[in-house]
User: What shape does this take?
Amino acid sequence: MNENLFASFATPTMMGLPIVILIIMFPSILFPSPNRLINNRLISIQQWLVQLTSKQMMAIHNNKGQTWTLMLMSLILFIGSTNLLGLLPHSFTPTTQLSMNLGMAIPLWAGTVFMGFRHKTKAALAHFLPQGTPIFLIPMLVIIETISLFIQPVALAVRLTANITAGHLLMHLIGGTTLALMSISPSTALITFIILILLTILEFAVAMIQAYVFTLLVSLYLHDNT
Amino acid sequence: MASVVCVFSSSFSVPLKEKKLMEVKLGELPSWILMRDFTPKGIAGAFQRGYYRYYNKYINVKKGSVAGISMVLAAYVLFNYCRSYKELKHERRRKYH
Assistant: This one.
């Protein structure tokens, strides 16, 4: 069972072909693009959701920050749909791979930092020193602020990876427990089954919340730097 | 793929390449399959036709329902099951695996 526990996180290849690319591109099929003024029911629902999310998320930014709307909206749609699709049985979740999350987090964070240094150099550098610190603490505090700046992309990526991976692992384990307990004592199996149901509801929430948190933090870094 | 539908089938004969699948006789089936377009462009065209056939029937309708999306998700689950069958078959309840 130990080997099977982590087999679902292995990169999927079929006869040597990396079909992980197909699996990453699959959620894009589920979002048809609107091409009329009044669309059919499914596209209208999708449009309403995207407009709701974008208004809520981009309201805090100024004009310069709002040029990032497309990027942030596609980010939250991608992470949300990928996480939710990973809750289907036997499916592979690309966001459990640290490589992919780092590939998303580092360029976005670096984009916000470079934008801040380019347009508001003095203000961006001033972030390294909070107001009103005693003079003899300044060198140490600058070092600490630099470290906390550079840890931001790593924290973004690792947060997403760890949350989704831990959720999937827990579901595997508790499901295996329920199955093993069914022959020994059905009442205990029932309790573990209820725990499994509650965990699945939590996982649905976590899937969407993690997408939101990722995008929110990127937009926060953007807000600091525009 | 355009298919020539002839009303007077006794007097005119349709070339094998242009028949639809349901009109191909059983003996002609292997040669019909071999005559299909297997170039990358042909395969891409087949995928595109299949996608739009499904899309226009279930999604691009005035009142689409949950059935349209859930069929896609069920096919996705099936695809992933087939992909990981090799590891899954060791988890069956059998005495000898």
Remarks:
- Chain B has two domains: 15-60, 63-92.
- Residues 40-59 of chain B form the longest helix (20 residues).
- Chain B is about 50% helix and 0% strand.
- Chain B has a mean pLDDT of 80.
